[in-house]
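Hi all, posting the design record for the shared folder.

TITLE: backbone redesign
STEP: 1 of 1
STRUCTURE INPUT:
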């Protein structure tokens, strides 16, 4: 099942949710604060996350995570290089916590930095009980943007075991061509999300050879190779999704037996953290 969101310039959103809970939220709860995207460098050329995209994703997050108005860039292919090992390292909670502490030390100054170094214990294992979520954004060679929301950070599994829960979902920005007589950009985008169906528990599987989100009959909703340069998207039972790198069920895809497969080349990839570490 897919969810389609249309966002106007006034930030009004219409989706397929209904019921008394949603009506209560819209009528009585104050509007959420705008999202601040933290982590882009001044030299970053290609920024994949936008305010509109983050708002569309935010609307589908668990309520406890919708309250966070600051998203932190954990990994960026543009800023950190193309390496699955670097991606896993950047996603590691200990690494994220150390980066946060290092940034705070720089802000406090040298004196506090020395004191902190004396207090900190090497080999600290971070046991985070705070709510966290992660958003992956991919841009392919044809300008498509798509990705997923994950309730856990990506990490390599030594044994073949899926992880993640039913809060995870796949999403894509579908290109829409609108007729116009004006000399303007005719390409518009519609946000579409594909929620967990409950048919199987094949949500996240990752190792040093690939990253896979969703699976049925050996076909993944989103599959990324170890070089982070190529990927594939199938329709899968886990999320009941369309091929992510195309329009509708086919788009930039091709037939492979009885399946529809969308192969793509990756030009950009980002992972964002939602929630605080401390």
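Okay, here is what came back for every position:
SEQUENCE:
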């Amino acid at each position: 099942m897919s969810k389609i969101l249309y966002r106007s310039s006034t930030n009004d959103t219409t989706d397929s949710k209904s019921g008394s809970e949603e009506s209560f939220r819209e009528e009585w709860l104050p509007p959420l604060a705008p999202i601040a995207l933290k982590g882009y460098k001044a030299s970053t050329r290609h920024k994949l996350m936008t305010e509109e995209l983050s708002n569309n994703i935010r609307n589908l997050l668990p309520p406890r995570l919708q309250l966070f108005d600051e998203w932190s860039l954990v990994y960026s292919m543009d800023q950190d290089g193309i390496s699955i090992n670097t991606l896993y390292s950047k996603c590691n909670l200990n690494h994220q916590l150390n980066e946060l502490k290092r940034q705070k030390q720089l802000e406090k100054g040298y004196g506090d930095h020395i004191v902190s170094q004396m207090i900190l214990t090497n080999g600290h294992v971070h046991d985070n009980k705070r709510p966290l979520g992660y958003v992956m954004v991919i841009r392919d060679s044809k300008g498509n943007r798509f990705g997923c929301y994950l309730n856990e950070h990506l990490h390599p599994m030594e044994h073949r075991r899926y992880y993640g829960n039913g809060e995870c979902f796949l999403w894509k920005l579908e290109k829409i061509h609108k007729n116009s007589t004006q000399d303007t950009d005719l390409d518009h985008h519609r946000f579409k999300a594909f929620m967990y169906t409950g048919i199987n528990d094949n949500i996240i599987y990752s190792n040093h050879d690939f990253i896979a989100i969703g699976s049925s009959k050996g076909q993944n909703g989103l599959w990324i190779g170890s070089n982070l340069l190529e990927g594939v998207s199938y329709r899968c039972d886990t999320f009941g999704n369309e091929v992510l790198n195309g329009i509708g069920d086919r788009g930039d895809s091709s037939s492979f037996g009885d399946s529809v497969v969308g192969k793509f080349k990756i030009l950009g990839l980002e992972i964002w953290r939602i929630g605080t570490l401390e």
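COMMENT: Helices lie at 20-28, 51-58, 63-66, 77-80, 84-91, 93-108, 110-119.
Let me know if anyone wants the other runs.
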